[in-house]
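Build the 3D complex.
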Amino acid sequence: MKYLSEFREKAAVERVIRKIKDISKKEYIIMEICGSQTHSILSSGIDTLLPENVVLVHGPGCPVCVTPKEMIDTAIELAKMKGNVLFTYGDMLRVPGSKESLFQAKGEGANIKMIYSPFDILDFAKNNPYKNVIFFGIGFETTTPANAMTILKAREMNLNNFYVLIAQFRVPPAISAILNDPFNKVQGFLAPGHVCTVMGIEEYIPIAEKYKVPIVVTGFEPLDLAEGIYMVIESLSKGESGVKIQYKRSVRPEGNPKAKEIIRRVFKIGNQKWRGIGEIPESGWILREEFEDMDARKLLNKKIEEVEETKEGCIAALILQGKKTPNECELFKKLCTPLNPLGAPMVSSEGACAAYYKYKNE
Amino acid sequence: MKKIELAHGSGGVLMREFIEKEIKERFKNKELEKLLDSAILKTKNKKIAFTTDSYVVSPIFFPGGNIGELAVNGTVNDLVAVGAFPKFISLSLIIEEGFLLEDLRKILDSIKKAAQKAGVKIVTGDTKVVDKGKGDGIFINTSGIGFIPEEIDLGYHKIEEGDYVLINGPIGLHGFSILVSRENIEIEGDLKSDTAPLNELWEKLYENKIEVHFMRDPTRGGVQGVLNEIAKESGFDIILYEEKLPLTDEVRGLSEILGIDPLLMANEGKMIFFVKRKQAEKAISILREYEFGKNSEIIGEVKEKGEGVLKLKTKLGVTRILDMPYADPLPRIC
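Done.
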């Protein structure tokens, strides 16, 4: 762990914070895209060390949060059907769909199992040939390669009882959507380090050029985040735009070509609905034709209705686009809590509202 | 809520609500009232501690122990937590038809060993066998009785501003080792459950007249869950120091990889001691002399009376809240 502790050292972080203070002459609004970064910022307390004129707003990068309600409803419906077993990641289990969460459905007898690695599902499918084994795979580009690889392996193993329910999100179209908004206030971005470890920075260059913003690919430790923030402000103060990499120990400009190739063998770019935001063009990965036979939705014998997302008074959409922070919401901590989440950013611990609830509950 | 969910048994907000509403309300009496680890029963010339606990751990055999010794140590520690010296234990076995006799013997042998180590006698018991498919191999219930020295009176009311919060070693070991063996996660290193009886540690503190104000074993809900409850019940704010928390490399690594905070993970051989400030250093040096206290640390302190919240001073020197977990922690996907 020595490698990580260096990036948590108080003195090193304080040095960068001092540099930020020195160059921050006006107000800067910076968005970190990724939920893990939001989590890390709030849990270490970086946000409270920054000068007042540097404002962090939190982006839509929590895949569990933005998975549409009807996907969860679909997963529950599938898991309740006799002969089906549904596998998914742990933090998906507590997220409420339109009526209940997967956890609650499990309590009522739905067949749901939690996984750490999707590859574990393949053995289960092989050993249980008379069961329909469904993988509810969600995530950003960080999990896409593993999910794609699982699908490829299932094909290789000739498993014809293996199905997938997929909600794969892409970061760059979400950044474009935020910048396209005429009311956008975000001046610069911390791009997610692990997404870019897979995808590289190529997709971000045209965005930075078109909208004239600095985008800094940033890591997840306190020192990474402080440096990323410094690099954004440095660019802003010089009037520069473009893509820079702070998280050099993990990210190469070209990304991971092998992982990218695996993604493209299984998925193609398609439109994707985001909980709390709505559909963003080309913001998802969907199955290529040759894998469509694995689409678990064809096992359904009833139609799952699309659900209206926002509850009255909930400002999830504004929070996910960086226009408001959770503590500006009237429902926050009163009617809306992690136990009774009303909007997308409260449903998973990575969401901005849940992170505020957890770390700023004062 | 119409049906019971797993979270109702996981030591978080949901379980607390359930116990308050469905148990405490219904059975109201002054012994139950405080919801301590053991009930304290007063007779004319003795203070008796009485507790019960059921063990349903899966897998039954895990790195560092099995369900049998867990059932002894857990009940011993629940008695210790109220300041008692454990004496007698009951043993109820609920066994699923088809369970291997060889495994049962292993479990019983380790119960015997654990009881000897803790100096308690198994004095009564019960055996039931249920149909195949109606149980998960074996469940164990143990109840325990211990005696509390006359002058000892631990409780929320004894906690004072300035008290130091001590723990007898690294946290999260039991929770993570169960997780690792349940999910077949392969890791390098030596990760084992910390299951252990802690009556010796309490005995030594008692003999040395250390002014202990409160004790609690941070099992389900972890250190964070238990300290939240203590803060709430006592009305004192409690602060933990992130850099003082004892963590092994294995736990540190797993918590990074899985995104699970060790503060939320169960411990089975740990006790949190609230000790009068000026005696804390002495308490630490006593605890460190014994097998289960070698790595004892002062991890926090009691601040002023207020809203009763638990806070963490992070390594960056920032203070933030540590709230009551609402159920077992789940791994994050990214």
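The radius of gyration of chain A is 21 Å.
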